[in-house]
Amino acid sequence: xxxLISIQGPVEKVDGQLALLIPLSAGGDQLIDCSRGVSEVQxxxxxxxxxxxxxxMLRIEEGDLVVVSNRDGKLHxxxxxxxxxx
Length: 86
Description:
By secondary structure, the protein is mainly beta. 8% of the residues lie in helices and 40% in strands. It has one helix and seven strands. Strands 2-3-5-4 form a four-stranded antiparallel β-sheet. Strands 1-6-7 form a three-stranded antiparallel β-sheet, with no helix packed on it. The longest helix is centred in the middle third of the chain and has 7 residues, at 52-58. It starts with 5 loop residues before the first strand and ends in a 7-residue tail after the last strand. The model has no long low-confidence stretch (mean pLDDT 93).
């Protein structure tokens, strides 16, 4: 297992999908193994796609800040300020 990493950044909309764009040089390279199946490397960026059902569970939308980590060798995504339940 690699180094424990925790990165904060915004949720972006790319090609109609919510995604996290993490530079490999800023720790994205440490998230590749734990994000297989929901991510792809695009040049110097790790793109992690957030499916609609997951965005709903996390209560996140485009522009919201999230924290991404590889704790326990698994991908973890948590909102910094979750939206209130409607």
